[in-house]
Amino acid sequence: MYQQLVEEKGKICSYERFRKALRNANVSFARLGQEECEICIAFTSMSADAVHQVCRSARGVLAMSHWTAMVEGGPVRVNHAAVVIEDTILSFGGYCAAEFDPHNPDKAMDIHAFSTETLQWTKQPVPEYRADHPSSPPFLRYGHTATEYAGAAYIFGGRNEASVCNRLYRYDPYVDKWSRIAHGGMIPNARDGHAATRHGHCLYVHGGYDNDMEEFSRDLFRYDFREGVWHACALCDRWEGMHRDFHALSTVGDKLYLFGGKSDELEPYYSNRPVYDNHLYVYDPAAERWDRREAKGEAPGGRRIVIDGKLYTFGGLNCLAGEHYNTVHRYDPAQNRWRLLRPHGRPPPVRRRAVACVHNGKAYIFGGTSPLIGSPMPAKSPAEEEDEPPLVDHSDLHVLEICPPLRTLAMNQVMRSKVPIRPLPLAIRREVDHLRRSQSIFVRQRYGAQRPPLSDRHQ
């Protein structure tokens, strides 16, 4: 079998060289399969169909999720927002202790770009903020949302220490230009901590903290990109706890899925007595109807991403239990079931208020905040208001592959086990070397061990 594969690939590598490399490193690739030929397949560029056909014994591994990369030294941000355009993740604003200045609210929103090809961050030049100019960027904020449509990013809502916003901004990355969108109809009140998703040619915005009403919102709004008009959608008023903020809204197929976040015992008002709801709510745009799913399995907290028609959540906080999380859960709409996943590799530290983006079947999770190591968050009853321990905001980025190819698994095994790469083919050596440099090239930015606290509601 091996000889056939080598002949098919033009003898790009020799069996003896691979055996020598593995023997010198004393590395077991048993998880990738029992045959050395499977290792060779992992290092070649054979199609996924060929890999699945030959590596039948490795199917279990192929079906397992893996943490495959970690990059440090990125932007330190909490309550930020991001989108993916082509091969680049664009991260907009967010809270940062180094830039915390309540006396200067007129700073422009910054943009950090992460290349999924080179695994490197770059910071875009920040223009001057001009409040009344139509091409001015929005002010630096947190608790906003970013949504991609037609190759541009649309920013809605958010706040700083001085004001809250309900304007809609458009950023075109191809010409590096901001524009303020003229919009009409039932424009949502200024808010932060809301959730947003795109469905077809429409942007949907739900909930958040309504600054004008000074209460949590349960409203759902739809913005039609073609018409430039906002519409009020059907209320989800059959169940308690729908007034909430910092939750998630995702599009799967022709439905919208709402999950997570927190409400308040005094709903819709804020009393610092949080309520956490782990039900899943589904909105059908065609029928303009809400439903609540009584899903099977163990429902999680945290935020979500969508990969291959399934919902994934990572991390989060339950202050009543005094716990931060770094677990990964998956919800399958077809089976109406949650499942706790246990990805291989080194997981990120526990955190909340991180951002997750998906590109080519990979989840990129970055930023967020968590307690200092050794300072556990005390559990408290809703009536208690104990001080939270010092928090650390994160600059790391982690890559989760739900179904990584053998090539990726082998590459990461080589780097983790420090396999001598000299015996490997030149193309493979270059790729391994590139991955190693990409994951260590960044200057580690330090913004201080702790940050000044946000208000209780924004923690």
From TrEMBL:
GO terms for cellular component: cytoplasm. The keyword Glycosyltransferase does not apply. Keywords: Kelch repeat. Pfam families: Kelch_KLHDC2_KLHL20_DRC7 (PF24681). The keyword Oxidoreductase does not apply. Transmembrane segments: none annotated. GO terms for molecular function: chromatin binding. It comes from the Eukaryota. This is Kelch domain-containing protein 3.
